[in-house]
């Protein structure tokens, strides 16, 4: 972790860091994959703060970042509330299927497939119960009215169970170092570290007072872009004063209004959960689908399983990830889809007109295309099939695309 200059206007540089290019790509990956990452984590979990600001010893931003890095909490359990508001258009549930690319039960898939089920966290408000006992025992349960979905890792076995359909997913965890590096964030600490990868000399990092989160005293770390043009307003991380574990992660947009992501522990305990919490046996009569069966199903339909954040970066624009334009929080990723752009209005039935209704037509040195927007990410798809995407405003995106030509 690079040193920070001061607590009033703290920054970290990447000069001489061979991973600088990877960090610049991370600035693209984090906002673009925020839906999938949120769905895959036990922790993108900003908490709802209790009343009161505890009186804690003074700490600098550098010390607080180091406290996060040194945190070694492996056992915990608790309840998490997560709200996500990306401002996606209401497509009657279609957007979740498009984001996941996952199999659906009605076409041979499984409702217990985690890549399909957990994309529900991409929008709305949800309540989760979580438990962890080291890296090999973890459980996440998504509570849905009278039903419950659970994702359990016990050793090398991974189980998903949807009580509503009585369907079970079973897979195994690859133990190679490469697969471990590619996994998406799995704890609040992981997610905070992903945010900190975006820190460079275009970033202000400060300590923004204290708070109580789920009854725990915490420091608040504030990460803000210095540049104009970014859609990110601020990232706030509440860090447990005793253990250094991030308890709260809130991302607010520069446009104001509700947070894009606001989730967190409403209850947390650092006692070791009982071993029985991670036991699972398929219920009598349940339909069990093996991961290999789902992989074959995806292949038959010409689909690819969803990737982690690192996998996404590597899959767009070659093994080193997408090309980038600009710097800092105004970095824009670009890659070629290898085909033509969106169908024109009237082409392919009503598809062209439907897609046009979701975006705004633009033109510039890059030619012409359509910009699709959320509250955090803007994406430009040109008529020749080139994509430009980043956590930047529409104007900044169009300008970057012109500069890239």
Comma- or semicolon-separated keywords:
405 residues; alpha+beta; outer membrane lipoprotein receptor (LolB), chain A; 2 domains; 13-stranded mixed sheet; 11 helices; 22% helix; 32% strand; disordered N terminus
The CATH superfamily label of the largest domain reads: Lipoprotein localisation LolA/LolB/LppX
Helix content: 10-25%
Main β-sheet: number of strands, strand sense, barrel status? 13 strands, mixed
Coarse shape: globular
What gap, in angstroms, lies between the N and C termini? 35 Å
The appropriate CATH architecture of the largest domain is Clam
Binned strand content: 25-35%
Output the strand order for the largest sheet.
1-8-9-10-11-12-2-3-4-5-6-7-13
Order of helices and strands: HHEHEHHEEEEEHHEEEEEEHHEEHEEEEH
Could you explain how this protein is built, in words?
This protein is an alpha+beta fold and 405 residues long. It has two domains: 20-311, Lipoprotein localisation LolA/LolB/LppX (outer membrane lipoprotein receptor (LolB), chain A, Clam); 337-403, no CATH class. Helix content is 22%, strand content 32%. It is built from eleven helices and 19 strands. It has helices at 20-32, 34-40, 61-70, 94-100, 114-117, 177-182, 188-196, 291-300, 309-315, 351-358, 394-403; strands at 49-50, 75-84, 124-133, 137-144, 147-154, 157-162, 167-172, 203-213, 216-225, 232-240, 246-253, 261-269, 287-290, 323-325, 332-336, 360-364, 367-373, 378-382, 386-390. The strands form two sheets. It has a 13-stranded mixed β-sheet. Strands 14-15-19-18-17-16 form a six-stranded antiparallel β-sheet. Strand 5 and strand 6 form a beta hairpin. Helix 1 (20-32) packs across helix 9. It is globular. It starts with 19 loop residues before the first helix and ends with a helix. Mean pLDDT is 74; it is low at 1-51, 91-105, 175-186, 296-319 and 345-349.
């Amino acid at each position: 972790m690079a040193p920070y200059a001061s607590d009033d206007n703290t920054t970290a540089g990447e000069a001489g860091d061979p991973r600088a290019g990877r960090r610049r790509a991370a600035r693209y990956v984090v906002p673009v994959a925020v839906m999938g990452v949120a769905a895959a984590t036990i922790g993108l979990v900003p908490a709802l703060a209790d009343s009161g600001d505890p009186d804690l010893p003074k700490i600098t931003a550098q010390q607080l970042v180091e406290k996060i890095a040194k945190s070694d909490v492996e056992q915990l359990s608790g309840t998490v509330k997560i709200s996500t508001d990306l401002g996606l258009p209401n497509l009657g549930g279609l957007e979740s299927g498009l984001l996941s690319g996952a199999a659906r039960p009605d076409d041979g898939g499984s409702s217990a497939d985690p890549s399909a089920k957990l994309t529900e966290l991409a929008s709305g408000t949800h309540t989760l119960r979580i438990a962890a006992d080291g890296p090999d025992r973890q459980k996440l349960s998504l509570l849905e009215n009278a039903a419950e979905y659970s994702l359990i890792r016990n050793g090398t076995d991974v189980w998903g169970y949807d009580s509503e359909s009585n369907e079970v997913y079973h897979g195994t965890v690859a133990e190679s170092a490469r697969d471990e590096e590619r996994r998406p964030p799995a704890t609040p600490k992981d997610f905070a570290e992903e945010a900190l990868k975006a820190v460079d000399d275009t970033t202000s990092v400060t300590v923004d007072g204290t708070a109580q989160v789920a009854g725990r005293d915490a420091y608040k770390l504030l990460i803000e872009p210095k540049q104009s043009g970014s859609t990110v307003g601020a990232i706030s991380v509440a860090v447990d004063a005793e253990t250094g574990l991030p308890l709260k992660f809130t991302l607010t947009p520069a446009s104001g209004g509700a947070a894009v992501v606001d989730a967190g522990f409403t209850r947390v305990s650092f006692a070791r959960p009982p071993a029985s919490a991670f036991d699972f046996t398929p219920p009598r009569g349940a339909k069990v689908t093996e991961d290999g069966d789902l992989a074959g199903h995806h292949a038959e339909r010409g689909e690819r399983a969803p990737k982690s954040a690192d996998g996404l970066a590597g899959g767009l624009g070659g093994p080193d990830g997408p090309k980038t334009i600009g710097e800092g929080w105004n970095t824009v990723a670009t890659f070629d889809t290898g085909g033509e752009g969106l169908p024109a209005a009237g082409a392919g039935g009503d598809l062209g007109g439907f897609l046009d209704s979701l975006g705004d037509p633009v033109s510039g040195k890059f030619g012409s295309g359509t910009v699709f927007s959320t509250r955090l990410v803007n994406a430009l798809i040109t008529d020749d099939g080139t994509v430009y995407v980043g956590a930047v405003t529409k104007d900044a995106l169009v300008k970057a695309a012109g500069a890239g030509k």
